[in-house]
Every structure is written in C-alpha cells, then in structure tokens.
Amino acid sequence: MDTLWTFLVHRRQQLLTDSYLHVSAVVQSVIVATLIAVLVGILVYRSPFGSAIATALASAILTVPSFALLGLLIPFLGLGVGPTITALVLYALLPILRNTIIGLDSVDPAVTDAARGVGMNRLRVLTTIELPLAWPAILTGMRVSTQMAMGILAIAAYAKGPGLGNLLFSGLSRVGSANALPQALVGTVLIVVLALVLDGIFVLIGRLTTSRGLRD
Q1: d(CA 100, CA 196)
Q2: pLDDT of 66-122, one tens digit each?
Q3: For a Cys staple, 137 with which of 5, 99, 105, 199, CB 3.0–4.6 Å?
C-alpha cells in the first residue's frame, strides 16, 4: 500500500492528464459516432433491407480485433490520435445505429399520421416527433458505446494513443519492478471509475432530456 500511495502522490499530475485525455478521446469519438449512426439510421430505418445491410456492416467491424484494426489504420493515419479516434468511432457505431433504427421504427405510425394530418412535412415530423421519441433508445446506445470505448482506448496505447492505456502498457512491460503493479492497478481502477462516472452523466442527461411520460 505504501508503494501504491507513493506512486499516486508522485504521479498525480500525470494521472490527471491521462484521465482527462482518456475521457476526452472517448467523448469525442462517441459524439462523432452518434452523428454518423443517427444519420445512417434515419436513411435506412424505413427499409428492412437497408437496415439489415447497415447493421451487418457495423457488426462486422466489431469482429475485427482491436490490435488488428489499429495495425490496419497505422499505415494510413500514422501513430497517435488519428488511428485511435478512428478505431473508437468505428467500434462505437453498432450500438448507436442499432438503437436508432429500433427507436425510430418503434414510433407509433398513428402519431406520425396525425402529425402529417395537421400539415407537418416529413422533415418536421422527423425532428419534432420521431427523433424525440427515439431519443431514449439512442441514448442507451450511446451509453453502451461509451463503456466499450473506455476499455478499447486502453489498447490504443499500442498505437501511441492518448489516455490511461499508456500507464497500463508501461506497467505490464515492467513486471517485477517496483512501480509495475501500482501502474497497472491504478490505470485499471481509473478506467473503471471514469466509465462509471460517464455512465452516471448519461443517466442524468437522460432524465433532463427525456419527457416524464417516456421515462415512465
């Protein structure tokens, strides 16, 4: 415990910086993935064939191991932020895309028909009725993608990506030395804690942005 406490005291600034970079990379990746996934979901949710193709392509990305995907991206994007963010965006697409399609498809047709009956055009129906009703499902997909990205980003240290993965890799590569175990342990615990914090923020966002009728 003394070694662990000493490590925390001496590396607190680095830990704060790495934690910030870790969260920042995940949040940015999930936002980009959400924009892409929601747009694709809007385009394909009315077509069973289009929905199946889009979901299958996003699912196929998840079958590629993280190390392999990073290795494929490095020759084109180099090391660092480029391949890391790209990989996180690609991995984050499926839960958000799937939930967007499910959320939009589950909107009661009677509601949209009534909206058109009072003169709303297709775009207005989408933005004022369908997307708000699908929002809880989309937000759930974002929560799942965020938790996935928190863990995957640790592996991105292989590509010199930002975040706490560098702490883990450094500790594991120096097994047997004085600070190896504290590095790996602190890095792991911080990733778990930050993931829980982000999930709590998503729960709060959901309560603030979802009408009480949909929550109940």
Answers
A1: 23
A2: 889 999 999 999 998 999 999 999 999 999 999 999 999 999 988 888 888 888 888
A3: 99
**Is the separation of the CB atoms in 55 and 98 below 8 Å?**
yes
What CA–CA distances, in Å, run from 56 to 60, 61, 68, 84, 132?
6, 9, 19, 23, 26
**CA 23 to the chain's CA centroid:** 10
Rounded distance between C-alpha atoms, residue 11 and residue 25, angstroms: 21
